[in-house]
Amino acid sequence: MKSRLPPAFGPRKMPVQARAALTVEAIFEATIQVLLSHGMERLTTTRVAERAGVSVGTLYQYYPNKQSLLFALLQQHMESVLGAVETACEQSRGAPLAEMLRNVVEQFVDAKMRRPDISTALYRISADVDGPALLKRTGERSRKALERMIKTAPDLPSAPEPFAIAMMYSAMAGATRSVLEAGASPTMVRKLREHLVVLCQSYMASVSQWRVSAER
Description:
The protein is an all-alpha fold. It contains nine helices and no strands. Helix 1 packs across helix 2.
């Protein structure tokens, strides 16, 4: 289920046919390229249309303004990351805690690093196109998926409270953003994956054990 669009950012229509979907993908890719080369201030629908090889009229068939276009691009990216997390959580249900957390962390990092240029560019414009509200909605879904998964771990002494899961997810998102904004070299990405797995495994095991001790 996709996040509900604020009226000011909603598209005029959604692509239905394969050809229309390809046009929208070309528009999205052109938007990223213009955003990276010119920045938010100089990004215009005219520049995007020229880079995509379509007319401005064609672009306006889908997105009535720059904000609508950028919101749609941000939403697509965040839905992609959310999908990776939800799939990893579903596939890891019933696995040992360390294994399920490794799977989720690696899928999350892979989704963010599949196109680091897109991830980095969208961080820059998020606040201008209702990004925080979209992040809140997708973050809630990610945390719920994590909670459902972690409760099935056979070696978990006690199910962690939602706050602990929110803390872990925030650490995943924050650390990944930090690496992206620092350049995301192959070495940095490898270390991110390794350290984030250890961080999440250790934290969740410790929090669970601490809760058992506190309840005695």
